Amino acid sequence: MIKEFDTCSPEQTEALGAALGAVIPAGTVLAYRGDLGAGKTAFTRGLARGLGYREPVTSPTYTIVNEYIGGRIPLFHFDMYRLGSSEDLWDIGWEDYLDRGGVCAVEWSENVADALEGALTVTIEKLGDTRRRITLEGGDFLADLGL
Hints:
single chain; seven-stranded mixed beta sheet; 4 helices; globular
């Protein structure tokens, strides 16, 4: 399934993430694609809110992964920008995160694409200063978004 949305502000991007968070099942892997500053972290802030997490959500650029526990299901937010291959992903315990039954949201997923087979792809394209086109591809549960 493919769904496409246009947003006009970071708040709308977050709201779309929140709508997805409200219906996403445990164990889902999200493979983000988008340029620097496209809105991947804004989308993840909304996703966390939709999962019931209320604390601040930040980019994991320097930590590789941020864990958000306390919502409906855990959220693991990865930034693969500095990883060279999927081998590096396995070295940081990727399998352990998958086994924990949360949602894994992976920024710069193209750097580890061979480890993300079957992931829901979230592509965020800049259309202007604040306008974004967000394409969600995969996952039958997308029909439940109601948007």
